[in-house]
């Protein structure tokens, strides 16, 4: 075999291994330094996301943990999901918008709740919500725990969009890479 071809193949194999090492079942270290885990906006303005412990990334079955930083003026999309979600505000402050009127065909005007450092809140299954950093001075940092990963996200353009029109996003932004890795593996 041509030597250059071999080098190319080796490089390809190495890059594949490096990529896949972010995805489950490659022997995740017991203790990890989250400052050294990847952070990414995944194309969402004002977001920095780290999957601290994930289903597709680390092989968890029941829960998943994220650390997210939302810049001043930025927000999550208006969305819902059929899992439980618990937030702990590690730093900063903002506003939680929560629509709990699940008997209507759309979310409707949400209730606004101020959130602040050391506050915690949980989002009931399927309740439509949005988290905003409404503090102009500071980043909002939250630790998020969800049940039943990997998450299927339903995104709304506004609070009056019918539930049936909400757009499904699956896999969720930060799961895309590992989902593809897994899918490719399953095909082989
Ligand atoms: C964790 O990672 C950060 C960023 O690389 C580093 O500054 C820190 O020293 C690490 N902590 C330990 C205990 O290695
Ligand atoms: C958050 O709570 C911890 C534990 O009670 C406390 O040590 C810390 O000072 C609190 N931080 C703020 C900003 O309230």
From TrEMBL:
MF terms (GO), sorted A to Z: auxin binding; metal ion binding
Glycosylation sites: 118
A Gene Ontology cellular-component term: endoplasmic reticulum lumen
InterPro entries in the record: Auxin-bd (IPR000526), RmlC-like_jellyroll (IPR014710), RmlC_Cupin_sf (IPR011051)
Protein name, UniProt field: Auxin-binding protein T92-like
Signal sequence range: 1-20
Matches recorded under Gene3D superfamilies: Jelly Rolls
Subcellular location, principal: endoplasmic reticulum
Binding site for Zn(2+): 79, 81, 85, 129
GO biological process, one term: cytokinesis by cell plate formation
Role: This is probably a receptor for the plant hormone auxin.
Disulphide bridges, residue numbers: 23-178
Keywords on record: Auxin signaling pathway, Disulfide bond, Endoplasmic reticulum, Glycoprotein, Metal-binding, Receptor, Signal, Zinc
Top-rank lineage group of the source organism: Eukaryota
Pfam families linked: Auxin_BP (PF02041)
SUPFAM superfamilies xref list: RmlC-like cupins (SSF51182)
Subcellular location: Endoplasmic reticulum lumen
């Amino acid at each position: 075999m041509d030597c250059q071809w071999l080098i190319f193949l080796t490089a390809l194999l190495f890059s594949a291994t490096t990529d896949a090492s972010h995805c489950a079942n490659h022997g995740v270290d017991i203790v990890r330094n989250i400052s050294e885990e990847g952070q990414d906006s995944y194309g969402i303005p004002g977001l920095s996301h780290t999957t601290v412990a994930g289903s597709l990334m680390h092989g968890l079955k029941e829960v998943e943990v994220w650390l997210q930083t939302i810049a001043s003026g930025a927000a999550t999309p208006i969305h819902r999901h059929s899992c439980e979600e618990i937030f702990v505000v590690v730093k900063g402050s903002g506003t939680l918008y929560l629509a709990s009127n699940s008997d209507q065909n759309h979310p409707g005007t949400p209730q606004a709740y101020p959130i602040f450092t050391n506050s915690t809140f949980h989002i009931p299954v399927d309740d439509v919500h949005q988290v905003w950093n409404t503090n102009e001075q500071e980043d909002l940092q939250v630790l998020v725990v969800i049940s039943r990963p990997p998450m299927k996200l339903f995104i709304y353009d506004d609070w009056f969009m019918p539930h049936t029109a909400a757009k499904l996003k699956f896999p969720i932004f930060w799961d895309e890479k590992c989902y593809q890795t897994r899918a490719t593996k399953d095909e082989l």
